[in-house]
Design goal:
Elements (H helix, E strand, L loop, with lengths): L5 H11 L25 E5 L2 H11 L3 E5 L14 H8 L3 E4 L8 H5 L5 E3 L27 H18 L4 H27 L7 E6 L3 H7 L2 E6 L9 H14 L3 E5 L5 H12 L5 E6 L14 H15 L5
Parallel strand pairs: 1-2, 1-3, 3-4, 5-6, 7-8
């Protein structure tokens, strides 16, 4: 028999009431019911700060938004706390990444009756399914800005369903934000294409950047797999060190939400093979930067990453 930790048991009870978790199908935008708002704002709870940023951009002054996971938090390993349970209980709308980004927590969220995955409208044929992931899609879709536009559209639609009176404002805010995303997509394309072709290789701690690679024309190598729950073996590290040495790659990157030790191990292994590698900078992968900084927004985070990658690999600074 599966034994859930106390926070998970509380979460199941509070989000589903007396109805069994198994009895209720996952909520989608199409099945989301209007919230009982009274005269107040829409209380939105997001799992990650990337999703929270979407809600703030599109919700504007009609919403109050809280994020369960802050800067530097790894959603693959996150476990809900009792405080999270209370926050979720008080939400009119819950937005989450989906595609198994939040792990087992999603099994409970999707039965709540008011939780929507912002990735639900992304066409299935545009999702990547890496080898070794048991057929599951790679959840890191935000690194392809053209895919994150679908998430913005879903957020607009979910807010409109929960708060029909705000539909026109949500549509206006979303249209303005989508124009910003189009400009960002073009900027990232320009930066990556400025890198010499032989150096368009992005080496990071784990395979979070596959969508970035496909969209912007770079090759990616991660020490770990798509989930940070996977361990990096000595064989993987040695093979990656040989690869960067043979290709003459000048830099590897650390990630804000992943320990640096695996990248350090690759640098040491490359040094033993006679190749000098340096850290090209810190990239934001599974979480945004601190609130109030440029990297604390989705657009600022993507722009930071693109400039760091381009500069370290010999492209535009």
């Amino acid at each position: 028999m599966l034994r859930l930790p106390l926070p998970s048991l509380l979460l199941a009870a509070l989000l589903t009431g007396c109805q069994s978790v198994q009895d209720r199908p996952p909520t989608t935008v199409a099945t989301l019911q209007p919230a009982d708002l009274g005269s107040g704002k829409v209380r939105v709870t997001a799992t990650t700060n990337m999703v929270a940023d979407l809600a703030r951009e599109i919700g504007g002054d009609r919403v109050t938004v809280s994020a369960l996971m802050g800067p530097g938090v790894d959603p693959h390993l996150y476990k809900a706390s009792a405080r999270d349970v209370r926050t979720l209980q008080g939400a009119h709308l819950i937005l989450y990444g989906g595609l198994h980004l939040e792990g087992k927590m999603v099994e409970l969220l999707e039965k709540s009756g008011r939780a929507v995955a912002v990735t639900e409208q992304i066409p299935h044929d545009r999702l990547l399914r890496p080898d070794g992931a048991e057929g599951l899609p790679d959840p890191h879709v935000w690194f392809d800005v053209s895919l994150w536009k679908f998430a913005a559209g879903t957020t607009r639609d979910a807010l409109s369903a929960a708060d029909p009176a705000g539909k026109a404002q949500y549509a206006q805010n979303a249209a303005a934000y989508l124009r910003q995303l189009d400009a960002l997509d073009a900027e990232v394309m320009t930066l990556t294409h400025s890198i010499p072709k032989e150096r368009r290789v992005l080496v990071t701690a784990h395979d979070a950047f596959n969508y970035f690679a496909r969209r912007y024309g770079v090759e990616v190598r991660g020490v770990q797999g798509v989930s940070t729950a996977a361990e990096a073996g000595t064989q993987n590290i040695q093979a990656l060190a040989r690869f960067v040495s043979q290709r003459g790659i000048p830099a590897v990157f650390v990630e804000s939400s992943v320990p640096q030790r695996t990248v350090d191990a690759v640098i040491e292994a490359a040094r033993a093979q006679g190749h000098t590698l340096r850290i090209g900078g810190e990239l934001f992968s599974d979480a945004l930067g601190a609130a109030g900084t440029p990297e604390g927004t989705y657009i600022g985070m993507v722009r930071h990453n693109a400039h760091a990658i381009s500069s370290a690999l010999g492209g535009l600074k």
